[in-house]
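User: Study the shape:
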Amino acid sequence: MHTRHARAALVALLALLSPLPALAQDAAPPAKAKAPTGSDYIRVRDVDDGSKALLQVSIRSFTKEGAPTVHLVGVVHVGDKAYYANLQHFLDEQDLVLFEGVKPGAAVSDLANADDAAKVKVTKSRQRLLAILVYRYLDKNKKLPDTLDESFSGLHGAMARLGKAATVDAWGHPQAFERKKVDGLEKYDIISLGADNAPDGEGANADVRLSSQKPLTKDEKSGGGEGIQVQLANALGLEFQLAAIDYNRAKWRNSDMTIDELEDKMKEAGLSGGALFSMLDGSSMMSKFVGFALGMIAKSPEMSFYFKVMMVETIAHADEMMDSQSKAMGQGMAEFMKILVIDRNAVVFSDLEAALRDEPTLKSIALFYGAGHLPDMEARLGDMGFSYAGSIWKDAVEVDASAIPGGKALMKNIRAQVNSMLPK
């Protein structure tokens, strides 16, 4: 593969799969102890005289007298089936799991005391999210879905949860999906019947319609969706995290910002809303590049091996690469990374502190997030008086160089290629 193609593939893989978004230097909070680095959470190890390489992700544990053990459980977005089964078993053994996943606009508890104006705003936000999912379904299937549920039936993780929650308006009533023909063309509308859940009405009881909002923007419409990640995992013989892990567990709690909070934070920072949806569903120009490359990967064992090794080496060095990217792109990237990591971590730690305060019978708590969030989380735990107690390393991806002729030499060359792209 030519160097320029390798660089494009490298950046694409980093954008889609990296669990290690860098922390801009002015974004990290002060810590009492030396902050850990990404390499404390992810590494590559050679086995069998270099004929195999293992991408490993750690679980780091922390203790404090009189408090439950806190496990920082890092994860990568694609990996071997056995890796996710192993993670599932570990997490199910814990008394509480706080996991990553952007929530629907305004949680139910937040809406309980909200006024009708706020509920109208939330309902419009939910309709807009549904419109994005309907548009992407239409673009893929060349027809409208029969129901709102059908528009996100093939999605996993955050987007599926957001879509399901958005089918209910801010008053707790189901939103209607109306299809009709206008001048021979099939159109649709998404409708909330307002506070009284009855047609027409005035004020808070007035119907809220998607058709009364401005059309979707180009940014909102664009993107390949998380299907790209699923297809890439399949092409490499791997699993996609959000499809492989069962989050529907009694002791698991979604601990993250809401989509409204993220949108507000990004607007304050002067960032495009399109970047938010790209973050949530994996859509970007890079995802389109990888989507184009999937056909070649699936047809060629050598290409599949090449991309798998590149993915492993890229993820292992993601903190260095993303730090370099952040500095090169300036303040905008620094603000984006602060929202993506620091602001979301603050939500997790608010939930953690509440659990420590209000649930005295807990013996263990796991924070289950992309590995890029965990160095900052570790610094926060240190400020709370927790001490490092040990690590367990999990094998996330195994690369077998014997799978293709000359695999060991090719793996060596790929590593040299990746190293040449690292900041000096």
Residues 331-358 form the longest helix (28 residues).
